[in-house]
């Protein structure tokens, strides 16, 4: 009859010193979160809108601004905007989000 002792009784030497330093180092994501705050809601004349600031470091693609019809080149800080009160719900609203020049959103005409 084998006894079930011996294999677990002693701590082995092989896994010495778990690197505790790696665990406590902050990850890069934390930094990007600071630059990427939660969207806020703007109550406007034409409804309620979510507005998400897109910092230059996170803007990796070219977008077309719906206000002026011109491009927002990569690495340009801008705004991402979608309806807060979309009739088909929040997911649909986010799908239809638009990228705006920050200035265009502020000065947009009352269409
Ligand atoms: Zn624009």
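Sequence proposed for the structure above (111 residues):
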């Amino acid at each position: 009859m084998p006894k079930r002792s011996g294999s677990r009784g002693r701590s082995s030497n092989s896994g010495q010193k778990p690197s505790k330093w790696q665990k406590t180092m902050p990850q890069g994501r934390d930094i990007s979160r600071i630059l990427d705050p939660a969207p806020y809601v703007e109550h406007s004349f034409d409804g309620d809108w979510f507005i998400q600031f897109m910092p230059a470091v996170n803007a990796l693609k070219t977008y077309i601004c719906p206000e002026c019809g011109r491009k927002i080149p990569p690495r340009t800080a801008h705004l991402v905007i979608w309806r807060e009160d979309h009739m088909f719900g929040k997911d649909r609203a986010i799908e239809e989000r638009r990228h705006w020049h920050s200035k265009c959103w502020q000065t947009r005409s009352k269409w």
